[in-house]
Amino acid sequence: MTSPKVKIFAISGSTRNNSSNFKILKYISNYLKPEFEVAIFEGLASLPHFNPDLDTDTPPKEIISFRNKIIDSDGVIICTPEYVFSLPGSLKNALEWCVSTTIFSNKRTGLLTASASGEMGHEHLLLILKTLEAKFDDTTQLLIQGVRGKINEQGEIVSKETAEALENFIKSFENHFL
Q: NADPH-dependent FMN reductase-like domain spans which residues (predicted)?
């Protein structure tokens, strides 16, 4: 009898089609052990703007669905670009819908920022997920600077250093489950 798969919910912070962040999530999903099943969320742009007046016992249906995907997962991976020295508004919006919940509390989480620079965006990502009480450490977070020169159009990692960093990230993330 086979054991159930470890369910990972992956979120790209970019709403751009075939973004570097989406490619990295695809890359990770292809290299995780077969015991893992990754679902990449593609509805970030369709989430309604956060409004505390709507964050009640009956939030919008898109938010219920988004939250349930986090709840039903064993872990979450977020890979995001940096926009104007911070997180993209669409990702921050999604995370704001989680503040009044405990769905990230002790949720095993991998955090990647892949951008031109990314330092400030990565710092903000870590701070927000720490505030949400997500479970991550130095080995399950990664900053990839100059990402466009490190991944090609087909989603292949062309930088040996980046491939090694992603391999280490993947192993560390897996070790939190197996």
A: 6-134
